[in-house]
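Hi C.,

You asked whether I'd gotten around to modeling the 53-residue construct. I have! Everything is below, sequence then structure, no commentary in between.
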Amino acid sequence: MKKMWERDPFNFALGATTVGFLLGLIVPVTRLETEKIPAAVEAVRSSLQESTA
């Protein structure tokens, strides 16, 4: 793995990111995420509306 990192670090990082993303899709959603994500989405949405107005 060290040789792959030294030879092509971008593809290694891309592969590691892909694996992390897929693992994130497999792991079930927690109660904390269910509670916190809607509030974060609303904060971003209101911030975007203020910046475009």
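If it helps when you're writing up: Helices lie at 2-7, 9-26, 31-52.

Thanks,
B.
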